[in-house]
Design a protein that fits this description.
F-box domain-containing protein, F-box-assoc_dom_typ1, 388 residues, 5 helices, single chain, SCF_F-box_component, F-box-like_dom_sf
Length: 388
């Protein structure tokens, strides 16, 4: 297993940043090699560069003008389509690039986001929407667009303290009929007509403004899990309890809410909500249960969701990894992130192949991996300023 750590502001050479390809040459020799290959041999260069992790790839844009144009080409980035995982609550932020059976890269991003807490709201086109909670300033929470690959950011809006500060806001990020109509949904508990309700409103990125007036939902349920909506096919989904587990859904285009049931077997088992191959899915996440079931929705967008038990599996780990584990995220390729809450070990388990690898996130020490929010996305060179 190869593990590479890269800091954005580090002085590491290109050979340190591409160990899996045994690139021993310096930048000057790479330029000479490019001349020997010939500009016409695009397939060779494409094949080499498309396999590199994001941070070394950005450094290699300095090799020549030709490489800079090639790497900056949107078609090349789309062809590359590397899915990576961003972890927050850490300082610095952490990106895991897992695109090979035996190799992974952990990139520590040193950034200026020195807030008390960083939470992920969602992603779109390689850009992450982050909520920055700062307990030392009057601007309690800021929403920003952030590109983890280039570290470029754009501030959207600042918000005051929520009604219940310890609970914070509940967010969702998605779009309606078209992808150029991105919206942020915000929930806050609010005192209204002598009772507590959920006040919700919508921030439109196109107009950079909140919808008026805010709407209300009766507070007869509680948001659970990481309190971030999962966006699929025009609908946002949140896990709630009332008191058994259910799903709150929102059609982003029509702004219509409804509640739908989870599989009966998961109503009282602390289910984990996610997506796999573009479909909504759920897994019973109690690690001491032993046996797990993957449930996949047969249809989406309707008032009632039909569930199909698609796979059953048992997580088999070495003895020293069987204690203090917490299943907390489903990746789109069928892998599950499991945290060792007593250490900095992260287990990436493939539920279909019954195999796993461990990743030591030393930079997360002191945070508790079970409190870290991950999100999966495809890297891009899109600027946050181009999204609104």
């Amino acid at each position: 297993m190869t593990q590479s750590y890269c800091d954005k502001n580090s002085s590491s050479s290109p050979q340190d940043l591409s160990t899996s390809f045994h690139c021993r040459e310096n930048v000057g020799s790479m330029a000479n090699e490019e001349a020997n290959i010939g500009i016409g041999d695009h397939d060779v260069i494409y094949n080499i560069l498309s396999r590199l992790p994001g941070k070394p790839l950005l450094r290699f844009r300095r090799v020549s003008k030709h490489w800079n144009r090639l790497i900056s080409d949107p078609y090349f980035m789309k062809l590359r389509s590397r899915r990576v995982i961003l972890l927050t609550y850490t300082r610095p932020l952490v990106v895991i690039d897992d695109n090979d059976e035996n190799t992974y890269y952990v990139t520590r991003i040193r950034h200026h986001l020195q807030h008390t807490r960083v939470s992920i709201v969602g992603t779109f086109n390689g850009i992450a929407l982050l909520a920055l909670y700062d307990y030392t300033w009057l601007e309690y929470c800021q929403l920003i667009l952030y590109n983890p690959l280039t570290c470029a950011s754009k501030k959207l809006v600042s918000m005051g303290e929520p009604y219940k500060p310890l609970d914070g806001y509940v967010f969702g990020f998605g779009y309606g009929a078209t992808t150029d109509n991105l919206k942020i949904v915000r929930f806050d508990v609010f005192r209204h007509l002598k009772q507590e309700v959920f006040k919700y409103d919508v921030f439109d990125l196109k107009t950079s403004s909140w919808s008026k007036p805010p709407q209300y939902l009766t507070e007869d349920f509680i948001f659970t899990g990481d309190k971030v909506g999962r966006f699929l096919n025009g609908v946002l989904y949140w896990m709630i309890t009332e008191p058994c587990y259910r799903i709150l859904a929102l059609n982003v285009k029509e702004m219509v809410f409804w509640k739908t049931k989870v599989p009966y077997e998961l109503m009282y088992t602390w289910p984990l909500l996610g997506s796999i191959d573009g479909c909504l899915c759920m897994i019973n996440s109690g690690i001491d249960v032993g046996r797990y079931d993957l449930w996949v929705s047969k249809d989406q967008g309707g008032v009632e969701i039909s569930w199909l038990k698609a796979h059953s599996f048992t997580i088999r780990l070495e003895p020293h990894l069987r204690n203090n584990l917490f299943l907390f995220y489903i990746l789109g390729n069928g892998k599950i992130l499991i945290a060792d809450t007593s250490s900095t070990l992260l287990v990436m388990y493939d539920m279909f192949k019954d195999s796993y690898k461990t990743i030591d996130l030393e930079s997360c020490r002191g945070y508790g991996l079970h409190t870290i929010l991950p999100i999966e996305y495809v890297e891009s060179l899109v600027s946050p300023s181009d999204m609104c």
